Amino acid sequence: MNPRNATQPEPEVDLSSCDREPIHILGSVQQFGFLVGVSADWIVTRASDNVATWLGLTAEGILGLPLDSVLDREAIHAIRGQLQTLRSPDAVDRMFGLQLLPGGAQFDVALHMSGTTIVIEAEPSATEHLSAGNLVRGMVTRLQQTVGFAPLCREAARQMRALTGFDRVMVYRFAGDHSGEVIAESVRSGLDSYLGLHYPASDIPKQARALYERNWLRIIADVDAPGAAVLPPRDPEGMPLDLSLSTLRTVSPIHLEYLRNMGVAASLSVSILRNGRLWGLFACHHTEPRHISLERRTGAELFGQMFSWLLEAREREADAEREVRSRELHNRLLGALASGGTNLEHLSEFLDDLSAILPCDGVGLWVNGEITLQGATPTAEEFAGLVRFLNRTAASKAYATDEIGRVHEPGRDFTERAAGMLAIPVSRTPRDFLVYFRREVSRTVTWAGNPVKPVVPGPNGIRLTPRKSFEAWRETVHGRSLPWSDMEMRTAEALRITLLEVILRLTDSAEKERKGAQERQELLIAELNHRVRNILNLIRGVVTQSRTEDGADSAFAATVGDRIQALARAHDQITSSNWGPGSLRDLVALEAAAYLGPKADRVVLDGVDVLLEPQAFSTVALVVHEMMTNSAKYGALCDSLGRVDVRWHRDALDHLVIEWRESGGPPVRAPTRRGFGATIIERSIPYELKGEAEVRYELSGVEARFTLPPSLVRIAPQAAVKAAKPAAAVTPRSLAGTTLVVEDNMIIALETEELLVSLGAAAVDMASSTREALRLIDAAPPDRALLDVNLGGETSIAVARRLFALGIPYAFATGYGDGFRIPPDLAEVPVVKKPYGAADLLRAFPS
Prior knowledge:
The chain is an alpha+beta fold. The protein is built from 19 helices and 33 strands.
């Protein structure tokens, strides 16, 4: 019994082991008006006159008497045995018809522990003798015969009034804001009914509600009865006596005045608990003083406990029914998933089943940005705003309100359709939501007096003056729905867990499918990239091979070849990200590197990187290619002094503006004729992309301005920003000896042969298959080899391994771009991307 170690379990009480631990005996104020403190064996008290009279002693200071000289030995024995059963801090036990004094009257006794103190409350035994257990059993049987919540509460009030004999018995239920409502009543004729009245939370403050959770029953037999002081006021350790569990203690004077203001002369309160928390009260009022025996009060307390458990049982039955429906829905969802007939978006097909789980007027579903609405709901636009609010506000659990407009201001605009909501998150942030809606219920709340009436200062200050007015005061409530009950919140939480389990399985299945689809897409894009590059290489070869023998159209062929090369570079950038948007910064940097090599730093880039959609990327690449080519031939980049500044930004309408400005080069003159390159620069962006293009030929250098619509531009993530490496400088040299070209396309093979010869190759052998290539190698090993990766129905890997074994240098030629994966044992082999030129071949064979 150590008050400083309250978290430890209470030991069994044995009075014989106590060393003068204080015992308090509270006698009925009406009968005795005393409080005697005793140890296990001795009276230790400062006696007052009435105590001294009862003990037959003189009230002179501290008394010390053996315990058995005051209390009957049999009574001491019985009390000690009963104390043995007190096993929890708030346990209270009762004894009836106990003779406390030798030869004296019989008393009803209540025992409990108050810290280390044993408190014995005694009051004269009543003449009636009833069996609380048998009485309550019959009362509970009548309760069990009721159907529904309201009939259960009405019958409970009627039974409690019959048991206690009070004029009025009310079932008083607390709301979420701790205000109260009388939901059932049994009252004698001639008294006004309180049924349906609401009481503000201040009528039963927090401290009183906490006490009701510990002490099931509290009686006030007479609001005007005088109180008696506790003697001694403190125990030997200087601590006051805690009488929280006492049934004889008086209550706050403020509460007594509150009852007088209501016209109540006596009251009895019996707690109604649910899951250990205060749910409500049986509030019993009488217009005259009324005291009922401890035995009858014990019956009332037992009835309150049985009603509480029955209430919990009824709610558990309702929970079980909802759980069965939730489980059926869960099984249907999983069944649809197992058959492959649904995915996350298809949850909308189950809205009828979902809406049946909770009472509602409408349901909204937000999944991956898709909205599905059914019944009385906000509009799609209003619902999207509500989801944004929920993502900012709601935690990872069900979120409920009966007044959307109070927490979300735009909600006031759709109150008549949806005033309350219960939102269930079904994914991580940003969350997807299943939202239940309830319509506005305009209702009149009748308060027992104005709950917002100004407080008038009283003798104890503003806070301590009880309410004096209990006249009905009506308030019409708008913009609110029926509140969401605790049971409905528990059902929503169970549904959330069910949906999360289903969606987790859907997500896993979808993730596997998405991964497989992504792999298939990457393979298709790689194959597309390969074929497009082959086609570009083929076109370039056709153009080159079609020029006249006198070489008059060589410049034309070179120009067309360069444009094809620019398209190939652009194509490679957008296919490297699975046909995703490409970086504007990389595009300009790659074009500069292709023409300027180590001098690419003369092109100065300025702007936060952006990504261009694939449909815009190729067009802008051709424009940049033409601008770069013209500058390298005629403008600022044709000598060693000039520079080009390329800047881009977003304008007020979010369009992308690209500005090109040349400076430091030779004087500029406007062209006298318009070629195809000028047409590409001036007309391709306005015509194909619905943008704008403007070119000015200033004497100091060419200036241009290009504008792209916002739909073609994205913000580049940090990871997408990468500096393009300038092309390594190619030292003029020749490729002597024999080169083997393994290529299944004849035109590309001829084009490659011509490039190699122009680079100084003495001979070029060509093979279109692995078998032919191996035969040529065996016949006469070449000095080097260029191997196309894909040879139709086979690859050239076998040829590569033969060359590697012979120590012959070689390079791969591929149209797969960065998607081509070289076998690990050939990882150091150079790779040339199609379409390639002379410079690419020289870089592939550095020696």
